[in-house]
């Protein structure tokens, strides 16, 4: 009895301490990288010369301040996702930044040094059109926001509305831009497409309409894209059909027609099919814009023009040029132009805006990544040097969302891979052996053994041992050499060449697929990006599936991964095959997929090159095998009768099971219809293929065994009711055998709704739903058992299982919202399981599965105590020690990936969302390695102490014996 | 036009009273913070103030957010610690301040369809229980997050008080010290000892020591003691903690 209590005490203490982080482990094996997303607005703080701030607003609804010297974040504010948090505009004046959020719903002002909110104002509804800072007598005091049918003016210091006016004829006129010069007026420009422009003048003080006029412009369809205001209130528009520029002074009362200037007069021509773009600059909102502007005539042709006295003068023609941007420092405005230099590099040069003269020695060479995309945005930070000349730095954004910050003469100051802010799917691949390790492996290859005789084998053996010795000595020397140097100077540069599998296989290659179509190979230990590959022409609404076909275990065959890219609308897919270690595209011929792909299936069948076979099922239920060599097809024919797969059609509420035929066609075996009028299928999950279950059953308190129902073909299907009323909504779960279509179990959670997160593993399913009656999240666990004896203990067959499993279920309250859910995974499945719960606060909770055990008793009995069952409690505890990422919160965590390592106790975890966090968890503590704080000194001192004590006492005993003998 | 003016007035009023919220009554604030969307559903503004005693607001507000029901609605903190979450439709929400360093107690905010608001203590088990909290919300920091568990430290006292060590050291002392206390070669002493030995052996009725021990340990009261004792110094502290939280769960 006593030992039982002790065991309980041990297990409980283990449980509470398990998977907590010790303070000295911080940063030891975990890392976090923070991202912001695709930059939509970027502004450099030009308020003071020494300022390092770079304010960015991104498509991920993030507003952040970056350190422009290092690229690190000063602060970052993550707003809610979706259109309600969408950042429409970013304006900056002095220390404050004004942001328009949620289609003009909110107006916020931020203090940029600390990152605190200054004020926030709710605006009237109406779709946002434009926002501008408004200055009065050289001072910027207001911000004007233009909506579809109203304009409002707000005070910059408090956010209070000065005035708000409805726009005249807003149902027929599309008001699109706003302009304010120096003369106490706000101009609102609207357009009736292909008819006329409407210009309304408002008085800044009280919003009184001073003037309203309409100007004929039959050729114009949109103001925003083709017009700009230059000089002192001159509206300038460009039209590609008439190949001309049009000008109109906004303020003049007499001119009621736009003046046409043919581009031919300037010897210019717009490239056919290209929409010309005008770019002007207004360095100070309280002063009129400059009279210089850029006109882009084709994708690689920019012209710097000047408007003076009603005439347009050509200052400089940049051909070819990709990008052009203005920047201002103090009183001087410059223009930076990026032009192609050669195939792999671009040069950026600085020109003075007012003359178009090139500044000497201002070239920045930008080297394009051959595996990346083209540059598409240029942000320039100009500053005055000590000798009063203008210096500059540039930030280049590319199609693949790389931000590169450069300074003269082309030094990359920092680089951010913002594509990683939107990781879609990922995998972890073992690193390969080093050359020497591979050499050893090769020695035991079958072919070699047959060809060679005995003697060459011995020689080979000796030589490889010698190589190993050499490598070890080199390693020791390196250790010695590094140890002598101070710690900071030792550079830990990680390259692919030196990467190799470590002793416990803790370091792996993380493959990350991002929504923008960029693939990354990241070292899991340090977070260094080892390779990246941008796949061009990826549709924005593509879905990706990453499949590891061959691991690194089959030397000399390179590892092989396949990415299935599928267009969500058409369903058409394509395959991209690559080497996950080096990121190189494989030369293997890939089957073309002319029909939409419905399902993929990775078989355990391998071809002669050890690549697993991937089956792709199209919408006519035809199967394509990849690779499809003769060998594979032969194997498929042999095993066809035991290959089953399922398809889900959520629009019709249909689940159907198919079997493969010998000729690679399929036959329908079963079909389950879940009526769509009542409920819809939201998710279907099987079990993970690489999961091992160590114990077949659970030992009960009375020494009998409760065997687990371990059906590898089991599918968990989650449904939600179509009726969303609080009283009638429900969440359903079906457990369906994927081979026979038999519904093993069915459960319904009433007064519940999604989003449902769930994990399906071993013999259990854990799912989380929202209880709409009590307004809380609830966990429910289903566990399936065969009973006291196994039906067929050697092999599981779905076709021969006469007894239905026993199902146990229990639910708990979870006192926090949930973003995502995943379970830990270890090599052999001996270690106890934990659930990893991603919380909206950014923490990742490691919740012992022990708390989600449907056998938790309400009343403690002797037997339940013996089984280490925790008594039932309705509310799940959340302890801060269980947060595996301590204060390294992961914003908007969307997925958690778990992978086993070579150590049974250790599970590798990657959480991704806006940020990426990698760590290791030890659900049952590190039972198979010495602890980090293992006291070597104590152990060795005790050993030595004992050794010397025996020596001394032996000597003393000898002396004593001798003395006695003499007596 | 007129509606707009009213809205503007409301805005002004809301802005002015958010600066000094304590002076106003609950009900007043509710009315001011309310907005009507064209669709007719009520949108309110939830406001309050978060305080971390002894820490300047600038040091923590940049990394903190105000979350309503996860990140369904998000608000940000001003540099005086006050916050507003704008544009919240009616319903019941759990408002929490998420900061990687400081801990705050979450608060449940109920908003009726007419825009009335109240704040109460979050209770997930008895969800209808109402313990009202002041509104505008006063969020006080209840300490730092304790993410880490302390390492077990090694000390001489722990080592010496270890039952294993005690079991080894005490007999050693007895073996060494007993001969000094009384001389076994003394014939009188020897006789006495032999006598006592005989007495022990002859008395068969006396219960076995092992039996005595099992009985002693199986009595329910001594569980904790036995567990802690046999586990030694390392297990001692965690098991005590485990026991405490188990008790909590039973509640």
TrEMBL record, chain B:
GO cellular component term, pick one: EMC complex
Keyword annotations: Membrane, Signal, Transmembrane, Transmembrane helix
Record membrane topology: Single-pass membrane protein
Compartments reported by the entry: Membrane
GO molecular function: carbohydrate binding
Residue span(s) of domain ER membrane protein complex subunit 7 beta-sandwich: 57-167
Entry's family note: Belongs to the EMC7 family.
Protein name: Endoplasmic reticulum membrane protein complex subunit 7
Organism phylogeny: Eukaryota, Metazoa, Chordata, Craniata, Vertebrata
């Amino acid at each position: 009895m006593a030992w039982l209590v002790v065991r309980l005490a041990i297990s409980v203490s283990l449980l509470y301490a398990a998977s907590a982080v010790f303070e000295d482990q911080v940063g030891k094996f975990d890392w976090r990288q923070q991202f912001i997303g695709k930059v939509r607005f970027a502004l450099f703080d030009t308020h003071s010369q020494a300022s390092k701030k770079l304010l960015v607003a991104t498509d991920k609804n993030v507003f952040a301040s970056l350190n422009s010297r290092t690229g690190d974040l000063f602060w970052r504010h993550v707003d809610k996702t979706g259109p309600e948090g969408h950042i429409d505009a970013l304006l900056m004046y002095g220390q404050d930044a004004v942001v328009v959020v949620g289609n003009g719903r909110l107006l916020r002002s931020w203090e940029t040094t600390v990152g605190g909110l200054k004020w926030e104002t709710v605006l009237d509804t109406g779709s946002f059109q434009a926002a501008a800072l408004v200055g009065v007598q050289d001072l910027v005091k207001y911000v004007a926001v233009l909506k579809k049918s109203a304009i409002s003016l707000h005070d910059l210091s408090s956010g209070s509305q000065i005035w708000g006016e409805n726009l005249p004829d807003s149902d027929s006129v599309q008001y699109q831009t706003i302009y304010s010069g120096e003369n106490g007026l706000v101009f609102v420009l609207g357009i009736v497409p292909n008819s006329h422009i409407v210009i309304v003048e408002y008085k800044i003080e009280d919003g009184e309409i001073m003037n309203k006029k309409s100007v004929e412009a039959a050729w114009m369809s949109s103001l925003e894209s083709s017009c700009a205001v230059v000089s002192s209130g001159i509206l300038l528009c460009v039209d590609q059909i008439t190949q001309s520029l049009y000008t109109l002074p906004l303020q003049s009362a007499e001119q009621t027609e736009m003046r046409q200037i043919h581009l031919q007069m300037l010897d210019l021509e717009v490239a056919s099919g290209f929409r010309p773009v005008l770019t002007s600059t207004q360095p100070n909102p309280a002063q009129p814009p400059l009279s210089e502007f850029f006109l882009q005539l084709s994708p690689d042709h920019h012209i710097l023009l000047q408007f003076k006295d009603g005439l347009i003068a050509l200052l400089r023609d940049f051909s070819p040029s990709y990008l052009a941007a203005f920047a201002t420092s103090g009183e001087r405005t410059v223009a930076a132009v990026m032009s192609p230099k050669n195939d792999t590099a671009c040069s950026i040069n600085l020109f003075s805006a007012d003359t178009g003269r090139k500044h000497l020695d201002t070239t920045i060479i930008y080297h394009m990544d051959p595996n990346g995309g083209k540059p598409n945005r240029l942000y320039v930070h100009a500053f005055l040097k000590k000798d009063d000349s203008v210096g500059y730095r540039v930030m280049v954004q590319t199609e693949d969302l790389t931000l590169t910050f450069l300074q003269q003469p082309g030094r990359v100051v920092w680089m951010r891979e913002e594509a990683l802010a939107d990781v879609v799917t990922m995998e972890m691949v073992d690193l390969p052996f080093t050359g020497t390790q591979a050499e050893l492996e090769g020695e035991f290859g079958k072919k070699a053994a047959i060809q060679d005789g005995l003697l060459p084998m011995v020689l080979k053996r000796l030589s490889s041992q010698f190589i190993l010795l050499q490598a070890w000595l080199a390693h020791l020397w390196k250790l010695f050499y590094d140890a002598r140097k101070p710690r900071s100077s030792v550079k830990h540069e990680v390259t692919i060449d030196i990467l190799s599998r470590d002793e416990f296989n803790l370091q792996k290659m993380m493959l990350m697929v991002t929504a923008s179509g960029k693939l990354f190979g990241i070292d899991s230990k340090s977070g260094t990006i080892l390779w990246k590959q941008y796949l061009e022409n990826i549709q924005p609404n593509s879905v990706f599936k990453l499949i590891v076909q061959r691991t690194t275990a089959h030397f000399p065959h390179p590892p092989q991964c396949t990415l299935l890219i599928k267009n969500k609308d058409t369903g058409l897919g394509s395959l991209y095959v690559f080497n996950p270690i080096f990121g190189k595209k494989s030369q293997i011929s890939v089957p073309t997929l002319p029909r939409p792909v419905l399902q993929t299936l990775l078989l355990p069948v391998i071809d002669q090159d050890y690549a697993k076979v991937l089956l792709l099922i199209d919408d006519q239920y035809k199967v394509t095998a990849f690779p499809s060599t003769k060998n594979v097809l032969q194997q498929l024919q042999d095993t066809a009768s035991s290959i089953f797969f399922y398809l889900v059609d959520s629009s019709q509420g249909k689940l159907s099971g198919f079997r493969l035929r010998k000729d690679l066609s399929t036959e329908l075996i079963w079909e389950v219809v879940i009526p769509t009028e009542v409920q819809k299928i939201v998710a279907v999950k099987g079990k993970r293929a690489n999961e091992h279950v160590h114990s077949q059953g659970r030992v009960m308190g009375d020494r009998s065994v409760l065997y687990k129902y371990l059906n590898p073909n089991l599918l968990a299907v989650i449904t939600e009711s179509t009726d969303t009323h609080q009283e009638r909504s429900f969440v359903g779960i079906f457990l369906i055998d994927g081979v026979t279509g038999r519904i093993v179990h069915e459960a319904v959670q009433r007064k519940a709704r999604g989003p449902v997160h769930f994990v399906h593993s071993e013999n259990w399913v854990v799912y989380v739903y929202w209880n709409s009656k009590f307004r809380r999240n609830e966990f429910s666990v289903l566990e399936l058992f065969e009973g006291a004896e196994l039906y067929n203990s050697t092999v599981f067959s779905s076709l021969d299982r006469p007894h239905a499993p026993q199902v146990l279920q229990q639910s708990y309250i979870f006192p926090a919202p949930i973003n995502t859910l995943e379970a830990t995974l270890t090599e052999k499945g001996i270690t106890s399981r934990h659930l990893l719960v991603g919380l909206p606060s950014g923490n990742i909770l490691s919740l012992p599965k022990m708390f989600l055990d449907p056998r938790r008793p309400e009343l403690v009995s002797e037997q339940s105590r013996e089984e280490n069952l925790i008594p039932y409690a309705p509310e799940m505890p959340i302890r801060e020690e269980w947060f595996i990422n301590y204060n390294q919160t992961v914003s908007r965590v969307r997925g958690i990936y778990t992978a086993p390592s070579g150590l049974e106790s250790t599970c590798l975890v990657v959480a991704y969302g806006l940020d990426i966090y990698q760590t290791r968890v030890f659900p049952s503590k590190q039972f198979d390695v010495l602890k980090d704080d293992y006291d070597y000194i104590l152990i060795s001192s005790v050993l030595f102490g004992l050794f010397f004590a025996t020596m001394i006492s032996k000597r003393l005993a000898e002396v004593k014996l001798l003395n006695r003998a003499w007596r | 036009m007129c509606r707009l003016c009213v809205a503007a007035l409301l805005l002004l009023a809301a802005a002015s009273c958010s600066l000094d919220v304590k002076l106003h009554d609950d009900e007043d604030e509710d009315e001011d913070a309310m907005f009507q969307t064209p669709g007719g559903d009520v949108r309110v503004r939830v406001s309050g103030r978060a305080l971390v005693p002894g820490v300047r607001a600038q040091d923590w507000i940049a990394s903190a957010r105000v979350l309503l029901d996860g990140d369904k609605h998000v608000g940000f903190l001003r540099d005086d610690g006050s916050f507003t979450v704008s544009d919240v439709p009616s319903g019941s929400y759990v408002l929490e301040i998420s900061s990687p360093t400081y801990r705050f107690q979450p608060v449940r905010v109920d908003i009726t369809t007419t825009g009335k608001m109240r704040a109460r203590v979050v209770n997930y088990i008895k969800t209808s229980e109402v313990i009202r909290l002041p509104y505008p919300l006063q969020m006080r920091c209840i300490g730092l997050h304790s993410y880490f568990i302390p390492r077990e430290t090694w000390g001489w006292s722990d080592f010496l008080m270890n039952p294993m060590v005690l079991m080894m050291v005490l007999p050693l002392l007895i073996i060494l010290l007993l001969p000094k206390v009384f001389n076994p070669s003394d014939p009188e002493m020897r006789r006495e000892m032999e006598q006592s030995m005989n007495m022990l052996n002859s008395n068969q009725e006396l219960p076995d020591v092992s039996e005595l021990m099992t009985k002693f340990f199986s009595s329910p009261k001594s569980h904790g003691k036995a567990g802690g004792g046999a586990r030694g110094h390392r297990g001692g502290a965690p098991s005590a903690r485990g026991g405490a939280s188990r008790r909590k769960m039973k509640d």
